[in-house]
């Protein structure tokens, strides 16, 4: 048996599955993200009741993924102040299982590569657009390594003509997250995304900036597929706009044939992080 922990900003999900049937979750526990001591106690109680051979953990961040760092395994400078500088990985050692430690978006990227919209590719980019914007990159079927995890939701984008929106990111005026996240859509329109009709002008702006990011990712990582997930991307009418703008912005520098198969919606949706965590646990055990 294998396990996964998807530690999100609003809820923490623990799940288990059989190693040879990752997408079928046998048991699951969902708790509201709150006090870390209580949350960790709930996690620790869940897994002894469901013994596993390995656990994949995808956590909200920022987190320290540098194995040579003194704070490896920590949730670091998070806006969730109760979790700031919590040694999450150390707390999980009581489970006595090998653990794969990464970000929640990395886990989702790995899940989409193994079982979702990026299946049968070697190189892909996954981006989630919701309360925040974040993503992961797969190169040669492995998560892109580094001393720090990627923050591709905070890349700078060139302003769309006529857009003078200040942005909601407290750090960057022109970053992707600050311009198109759920809170940005609300501030732009006065409504949440699910309350807006398809003709609302904000969607054209969101699609444009998303396309800019896709062009940047295509040029930087040469992916075979870019997968867009998260709550905002439930607006499926965004994809034709993105495909149209991609051809314009790329301007034939790279081929844009079969664009509908290049920039695609998530197939695993809100299960991407959990299934990705299980796939990472399977990877620890040597599974494909």
UniProtKB/TrEMBL annotation:
Xref: InterPro entries: ATPase_NBD (IPR043129), Carb_Metab_Reg_Kinase/Isom (IPR051804), ROK (IPR000600)
Pfam families on file: ROK
E.C. code: 2.7.1.4
Reactions accelerated catalytically: D-fructose + ATP = D-fructose 6-phosphate + ADP + H(+)
UniProt keyword Disulfide bond, yes or no: no
Domain of life (superkingdom): Bacteria
Keyword Glycosyltransferase: no
Co-factor requirement: Mg(2+)
A GO molecular-function annotation: ATP binding
Main enzyme class: transferase
Keywords: ATP-binding, Carbohydrate metabolism, Kinase, Magnesium, Metal-binding, Nucleotide-binding, Transferase, Zinc
PANTHER family: FRUCTOKINASE, TRANSCRIPTIONAL REPRESSOR MPRA
Family: Belongs to the ROK (NagC/XylR) family.
Full protein name: Fructokinase
Species this protein is from: Enterococcus raffinosus
């Amino acid at each position: 048996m294998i396990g996964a922990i998807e530690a999100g900003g609003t809820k923490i999900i623990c799940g288990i599955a059989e190693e040879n049937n990752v997408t079928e979750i046998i048991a699951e526990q969902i708790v509201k993200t709150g006090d870390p001591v209580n949350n960790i106690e709930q996690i620790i109680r869940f897994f002894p009741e469901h013994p596993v051979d390995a656990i994949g953990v995808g956590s909200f961040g920022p987190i320290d993924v540098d194995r040579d760092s003194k704070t490896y395994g920590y949730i670091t400078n998070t806006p969730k102040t109760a979790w700031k500088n919590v040694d999450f990985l150390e707390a999980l050692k009581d489970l006595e299982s090998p653990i794969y430690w990464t970000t929640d978006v990395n886990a989702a990227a790995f899940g989409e590569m193994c079982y979702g919209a990026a299946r049968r590719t070697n190189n892909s980019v996954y981006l989630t657009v919701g309360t925040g914007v974040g993503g992961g990159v797969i190169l040669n079927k492995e998560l892109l390594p580094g001393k720090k995890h990627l923050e591709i939701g905070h890349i700078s984008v060139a302003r769309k003509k006529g857009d003078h929106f200040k942005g909601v990111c407290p750090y960057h005026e022109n970053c992707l997250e600050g311009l198109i996240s759920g809170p940005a859509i609300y501030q732009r329109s006065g409504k949440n995304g699910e309350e807006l009709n398809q003709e609302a002008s904000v969607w054209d702006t969101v699609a444009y900036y998303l396309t800019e990011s896709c062009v940047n990712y295509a040029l930087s990582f040469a992916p075979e597929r870019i997968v867009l997930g998260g709550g905002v991307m439930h607006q499926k009418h965004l994809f034709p706009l993105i495909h149209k703008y991609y051809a314009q912005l790329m301007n034939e520098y790279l081929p844009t044939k079969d664009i509908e198969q290049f920039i695609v919606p998530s197939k695993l949706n809100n299960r991407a992080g959990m299934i990705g965590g299980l796939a990472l646990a399977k990877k620890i055990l040597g599974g494909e």
